Amino acid sequence: MGSHLNLWKQHLGQVPESVWEQAGLETLVLADNDLQEIPSTIARLERLRMLDLGHNALRSLPESLGELENLSDFLYLHDNRLTSLPSSLARLKRLRYLNISENAFETLPECICAMHGLIELRACDNPLAGLPESLQRLTALRELHLRNTRLKYLPDAIGGLLELRLIDLRGTPLEYLPPALAALPRLGKIDLRWVPGLEPPAWLADLEARGCLVYR
User: Fold this and answer.
1) Which residues, other chains included, contact 205 with Cβ-Cβ below 8 Å and sequence gap of 6+?
2) How far apart are CA 135 and CA 32, in angstroms?
3) 60: closest CA among 90, 33, 80?
4) DSSP strand E in the chain: where?
5) Which residue segments constitute the domains of the chain, with CATH numbers given?
6) Per residue in 36-86, pLDDT tens?
7) pLDDT value at position 31?
8) What is the mean pLDDT of residues 14-42?
9) Tens digits of per-residue pLDDT, 82-91?
10) How many Cα atoms occupy the beta-carbon half-sphere of 28 within 13 Å?
11) Ordered alpha helix ranges (H), 5-105
């Protein structure tokens, strides 16, 4: 039995029980299958490093998903109907890439801010109106994608993201950028295109002078 299972776009409707019996799986792709729920038995796949649940109709996820503490490579949850995540996902300390884009999140789930291993976070196309101060706990984060959200401001806590290289704020109703951004030592790109309500702060020129690309 192989350690990789790709069931992309198989019109499953629900996941066959046999999948949860493959305890050796390291990667599992269940994208684009009209799935409305994931059973708690997913916790049996304790060797999983990558899980793709994108392009489905999920409104919730089981608490047991947090037991997959070997998830380290990718967790795709984009293009579903999620409004929250199980608090147990805070246990995914090794996860490096998380995509929750194209859902219905109005706030960023607190459990994400406990995923200390995250390098890339994609939360585009959500009705996000704010980010928690606990965002600063993501000290390994290099890319933060917030395109087409409802953010009007960013918290000062963003100054804690000392590894941040890229922040994508395209198409947001942003009215304010915290000066803490200017102090991020590795920031190389800020995308502010289609952000009509923002008066560019003077310190943006300083960032550009040191080589940061500012798209506006």
Assistant:
1) none
2) 30
3) 80
4) 4-6, 27-29, 50-52, 74-76, 97-99, 120-122, 143-145, 166-168, 189-191, 213-215
5) 4-215 (3.80.10.10)
6) 999 999 999 999 999 999 999 999 999 999 999 999 999 999 999 999 999
7) 98
8) 97
9) 999 999 999 9
10) 27
11) none
Q: Which of 71, 79, 54 is nearest to 111 (CA)?
A: 71
Task: Confirm if 201 and 177 have CB atoms less than 8 A apart.
Answer: yes
18: Cβ–Cβ under 8 A, 6 or more apart, which residues?
none
**Residue of 205, 214, 153 whose CA lies nearest to 178:** 153
Query: What does the alpha-carbon distance between residue 168 and residue 189 come to, in Å, rounded to a whole number?
Result: 8
Residue 1, both tokens: 């039995």
User: What is the pLDDT at residue 2?
Assistant: 52
pLDDT tens by residue, 173-183: 999 999 999 99
Tell me if the pTM is above 0.85: yes
- Two structure tokens written together for 199: 């008066």
pLDDT at site 186: 97
- Mind spelling out the 3-state secondary structure of 98-139? EECCCCCCCECCHHHHHCCCCCEEECCCCCCCECCHHHHHCC
In single-letter form, the type of residue at position 31 comes to: A
